[in-house]
Automatic annotation (TrEMBL):
Keywords: Membrane, Transmembrane, Transmembrane helix. The chain crosses the membrane at residues 21-44, 56-77, 84-101, 121-145. The gene is spoVAC. This is Mechanosensitive channel stage V sporulation protein AC. It comes from the Bacteria. InterPro entries: Spore_V_AC, SpoVA. PANTHER family: STAGE V SPORULATION PROTEIN AC (PTHR38450:SF1), STAGE V SPORULATION PROTEIN AC-RELATED (PTHR38450). The keyword Membrane applies. The lineage of its organism: Bacteria, Bacillati, Bacillota, Tissierellia, Tissierellales. It comes from [Clostridium] ultunense Esp.
Length: 149
């Protein structure tokens, strides 16, 4: 049996590794993320049609998108969308809802308290902690730097 050198093995492995399809991935992410944003805009337009003000429409749109992301994750559809759309499905607010619900769904067999509730914020928790912390720091810096004006 012939033994390969490290260089020969490296060349052999490079030939076997599938080439990434960057353009296709970028295109699908753009389409999926764009469609989610279009859905958000449609919801906004519908809510404005009912005569709601800007603040109420903004809140209601966010709430509806989080609900839809959570609901579709619970049905198993959002995971399929994420496989197709990649970052396009992860970036919008629906992706945030998916990141909260996915771990909870994974541990639902352990019960609602020790499974769902305990795991719900395992991924989103650190994001929330650092997001709130950084917003406080930025707010304090803004307050200090704008005092002299």
């Amino acid at each position: 049996m012939d033994k390969m050198t490290n260089k020969e093995y490296q060349k052999y492995a490079e030939k076997k590794i599938p080439k990434p399809t960057y353009f296709k991935n970028i295109l699908y992410a753009f389409i999926v993320g764009g469609l989610i944003c279009v859905l958000g805009q449609i919801l906004r337009n519908i809510l404005f049609k009912y005569g709601l003000d800007e603040k109420t429409v903004t809140s209601a749109t966010s709430i509806l998108l989080v609900f839809l992301g959570s609901f579709l994750t619970g049905l198993g559809f959002y995971d399929k969308l994420g496989k197709i759309g990649g970052a396009g499905a992860a970036i919008p607010i629906t992706g945030f809802a998916n990141s909260i619900v996915s771990p909870a769904m994974e541990f639902k067999r352990e019960g609602f308290i020790f499974g769902v509730a305990a795991r719900m914020f395992s991924i989103a928790g650190p994001v929330l902690v650092y997001g709130v912390s950084s917003s406080i720091i930025v707010g304090i810096l803004y307050l200090l730097l704008s005092k002299g004006r």
